[in-house]
Amino acid sequence: MLAEPFNWHPGMWNMLIVAMCLALLGCLQAQELQGHVSIILLGATGDLAKKYLWQGLFQLYLDEAGRGHSFSFHGAALTAPKQGQELMAKALESLSCPKDMAPSHCAEHKDQFLQLSRYRQLKTAEDYQALNKDIEAQLQHAGLREAGRIFYFSVPPFAYEDIARNINSSCRPGPGTWLRVVLEKPFGHDHFSAQQLATELGTFFQEEEMYRVDHYLGKQAVAQILPFRDQNRKALGSLWNRQHVERVEIVMKETVDAEGRTSFYEEYGVIRDVLQNHLTEVLTLVAMELPHNVSSAEAVLRHKLQVFQALRGLQRGSAIVGQYQSYSEQVRRELQKPDSFHSLTPTFAAVLVHIDNLRWEGVPFILMSGKALDERVGYARILFKNQACCVQSEKHWAAAQSQCLPRQLVFHIGHGDLGSPAVLVSRNLFRPSLPSSWKEMEGPPGLRLFGSPLSDYYAYSPVQERDAHSVLLSHIFHGRKDSFITTENLLASWDFWTPLLESLAHKAPRLYPGGAENGRLLDFEFSSGRLFFSQQQPEQLVPGPGPAPMPSDFQVLRAKYRESPLVSAWSEELISKLANDIEATAVRAVRRFGQFHLALSGGSSPVALFQQLATAHYGFPWAHTHLWLVDERCVPLSDPESNFQGLQAHLLQHVRIPYYNIHPMPVHLQQRLCAEEDQGAQIYAREISALVANSSFDLVLLGMGADGHTASLFPQSPTGLDGEQLVVLTTSPSQPHRRMSLSLPLINRAKKVAVLVMGRMKREITTLVSRVGHEPKKWPISGVLPHSGQLVWYMDYDAFLG
Ligand code: BG6
Fold it and tell me: Is Glycoprotein there in the keyword field (predicted)?
């Protein structure tokens, strides 16, 4: 039992001092006294404290008290002293000792620890001042030198500011000592909010005083990545690169769902909850250049940052997202939302990451996590390339020698069939060296992992399993900053994830039933920088509560828009419909005329279409296709702003199209951009007239701007809206202002025009344009109506239904 609430009467002083002296006795004989450490656990009666932190502090005490430090533990919360004291006593009831400790010893240590632990209410500025006074008085009474103070914030982020201000103004220890404040995620919601929070904390604490916890960095298998790479430098030196690594998978699967936590989860979703932090941290440890000295925190953190700098930006197509079927219902129930509410928060995500540096160029890193999946497991798996062919039959293959067996290295974080942290190295790779705190392990007979029997691996597990928080508490105590997230690293990570999060904000996740029933529904594939579900499943038109939808509930909406056919669906389905239609048109044109002339728009909307065409349309007659540009910015063709660059990055480099069939707009002639005297527009027009029969494209793909512009034909600017010119130079209201564009008369000569409109930003103009007549001067898009061809609108639900 704990003592009465903390009123510092003389009897209490004596008790505490006696406890501290007793605890110090052993170490005084062995070593010099290293100073006193006060640990203040804020949120001492909360869930995290109950589950992990008190046990971690007890472990810290067991590990360190004998080495010359003395401790006092202050459990703090807003709760009034009496009630808080009781709650804390409950949290401390279940402390356990290491398995190999004798029960009598255990009882003795526990008793000492309880004597050193006190509850106190920390609510007002005066409470913090009193805490400081008490620590000082306690040190003085016992004649102890102060080493430092640790404040562990196990509280929600909204409470940070107040606590931080109070610590800064009244609880800083004196000169020659250290202050460490420990913070738990979430550290913001996106780059902006993370930056705000960091700035706020930066007004109270120095960078070196802050320890941001990512508990995955305390998982034993994760904490072993760098030491393992270091100890096995010789074997890994030549293997750890794009020549040898096929791909890297970083995975955290869970069986639990978000029930009971939807108020948090609805705000965050799986990418913010797990990928942005835990999985990204693992990725950096796998991918970073190994510092010469892996124990140098400064070098580790610097190398980590370099990984962030080399990450290729994510596109919408880099990720797939899912949501377990009952999630929306749980949100409606827990957050009192109306029946019509449907959440778009992903509970499952897989993301394809590329690292553009010499070591990793071209190697896919797949990050994947989800709730309500079939098993709980976490790992980082490095799969090596294998181009060996074995002549002897399989029965003669020996695990240690055969190059035909899979070659992989797995940092098994925990759970799964193995049930514990482990490091697995295929026997045909090399025999690894691990520190003595890891031992060779055996699993249950017949156990297979990652496609091979366990016996095909050198398998190691920790001699003593330790909880992540306990590992991290020890690292905080020893000031090992490399196990924590610095402000710079945090912001670099948000910088990387925020654009993807924004682009997915309105994407409808694929629904999955949960658990084993998911079957193959979430299986995915990747190629050309894109991830996609292996199985096609059209999105639900109007998802509603009730039983799981049947395939017949899914459909693509067909209707009319401005008297022309309209195809509408969720974006993913819309893009695949449009890609199919383009392929069908191409095949028909090539069959009839021997070639297909396609004019494409730039901008962001068609990117997903280009990627779809590049990856999923093997029957496309590229060899007979001529590609033209609908419009172009007056920048060099190698400029990232150039429409041609977009086409090149997302389509051309992935398909086999004769280079003489590609027709970029000549915006850059004589080392000048769109100079009238260079006659670029006329040159392009002549090229079209010479190659395209009747100057009539088989298909023109257009977009529609929020101001009603199409191609580079802008409202209130007469250029290109009528007349004889096929190609014109125009002026855009936004930068870069100078543009080259097909004219409206040329567009209207096409056999088919498809207009692709996507995203909420287009909702207003979509509504407006649906009502206006033929007014190209105000809304150039309203002038699109092929004379003898067909016009089809492709709109996603965000743009069309709102
Ligand atoms: C937390 C997430 O950070 O990690 C949870 O907020 C998730 O959603 C948990 O369940 C998983 O951690 P562990 O240690 O159980 O793998």
Answer: yes
